[in-house]
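Job type: complex structure
Entries:
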Amino acid sequence: MSIVPGSSPAGGSSASRPIRIAVDAMGGDNAPGVEIGGAIAAAREAEGEIEVVLVGQRGLLEAEIAKRDATGLPISIVDAADVIGMHDAPAEAVRRKRGSSLVVATTLHKKGEVDGLVSAGNTGAVVAAGLLGLGMLRGVRRPAIASLYPTLKDPAIVLDVGASVDCRPSDLLEFAVMGMAYARHVLGRDDPQVALVNIGEEPSKGNELTRAAHRLLKESDLTFIGNIEGSSILAGAADVIVCDGFVGNVILKLTEGLIHILPRFLSQGSGIAAGDADGLRRKFDYAEYGGAPLLGVNGAVIIAHGASSEKAIKNAVKVAAKFVDADVDGVIVDTLREVVSNDGR
Amino acid sequence: MSIVPGSSPAGGSSASRPIRIAVDAMGGDNAPGVEIGGAIAAAREAEGEIEVVLVGQRGLLEAEIAKRDATGLPISIVDAADVIGMHDAPAEAVRRKRGSSLVVATTLHKKGEVDGLVSAGNTGAVVAAGLLGLGMLRGVRRPAIASLYPTLKDPAIVLDVGASVDCRPSDLLEFAVMGMAYARHVLGRDDPQVALVNIGEEPSKGNELTRAAHRLLKESDLTFIGNIEGSSILAGAADVIVCDGFVGNVILKLTEGLIHILPRFLSQGSGIAAGDADGLRRKFDYAEYGGAPLLGVNGAVIIAHGASSEKAIKNAVKVAAKFVDADVDGVIVDTLREVVSNDGR
């Protein structure tokens, strides 16, 4: 069984029944319309291999579904009265709003009533719900959000981009293992090349964190190609680009800012067409790739962009199903166990 | 006396004699040609207000000067037989190569035989020479390199961009004070707006370092406008953008990488002209601005880009003279003394 084209060498967790993905239908900026449109499209394209559970205010969701053709598709609704907003304090909101669509969806996942979940809501809240509701995978101390980043070759994943902003060297090694598992089993890269964001190519360069992480990565069984500088990320040498969540978030947001503002610099005295700039922005719009996995938690959680389109939600649902099918979490735990037995930690 | 147009409210350190700037003539990728051309241009344009001391291999420098018209200009040579290369280990090279142009120039500065220095050499070695040869200003724990960064409004300075990669919160406060002094007295900003690079606008966002630094900046007398995200740096809200040297270096290099690679993305299926891309790169070429000051050391040290043009070296010499004339170091020490007395540190 293969939900999305690409390799799934780890084998499926279940080949006999559909993979069930909960969609936090109240999360995004354009909820619940795009969530419902995306969920319907995913269910239709998967031809029975994905079952979608929409979580949110039942009346609202039923009205939105009624506007569309969802006849015969494996889509159900679980009612959740409350909503966590984009400006709610994440951990507090998750603790307090037990009836929110995000917390209800996470609880369904924890109980095994769904196999994974997608949310385009408050990213901090999705991270908090994952940590509090699902717990961490064995051998992983901190979670990481892995964001797809376009390069001149294939897109790379950068992790962490904001879940864990204060890291130890061993956290970066764990991020590398998680990124490798995702790149291999969801993105279909045979032998993922891992690089460490640093401020020089030599192993001696960097701050305390990256110098120590370089040593750990070098000693590991990963295909570690060394340090990568900001200027080289776009060239596409690496599949997996590792950094702490503060640095990764700065990389992501600075790139977004440059993409949006560079055409304005270019147009000062040049004849660049608005269409060119739009095309560029689209190339860098990571919503198109279907969202970023929250790696390290005990489950399959895909974070979609708040401004996700229906297509982005559809892709996020498919990515979640592929994550489950390839048992990425199992690969992470097994690989980390080998790392531990190899280096005697 | 004013070397370069702009405000110098702090007053000059000396109004009666020329300001003497040493130029490490062996430092850059195209040394010593561009260094000598730039030094001659600066001396000519300053009309007697700047005296340039070229430091390097005398025979080589004399031959280069002979190719140009330097008649009657206040330019002298101090011989230095050795050279620190771009790939030498910085601190080790500074300790070992006592006869290198960089170390000789720094020693001249330490002895008061010149008032400031410019080098386009190995950046790490310039930082090490500043630290070891000049020492730190009173009240400053760590140095910072302040790089000019183009925005949609006036250029901002970002500091640190690589001198100090492991920082305490108080280091970031000191960087802010140093950046404020430079922005005000060299760039001529009346009331420099200071911002902190962070991963969210709210004070509660960030890692341990930035959350604590935010509190210190908030309590200070600086005009602190709060956190700035990577996506907003280019909009130009701030004059002084503060971060640790690891993050600043990633920002600088990622920007350089994007500037060079984005036109290749644009040209995939669009009609962007090569000239547009060149114009964009020029706008972001910080060599055009004349180099980045190494702030916090007891002296006036300007780091020029390794690939500096003659114009960049000329501008760097003028910036060094302005730095001396405005007594930026004195302003930093005085401001930090006020900060200390205000918060009882």
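Summary: Chain A has eleven helices and twelve strands. Chain A touches chain B through 51 residues (CB under 8 Å).
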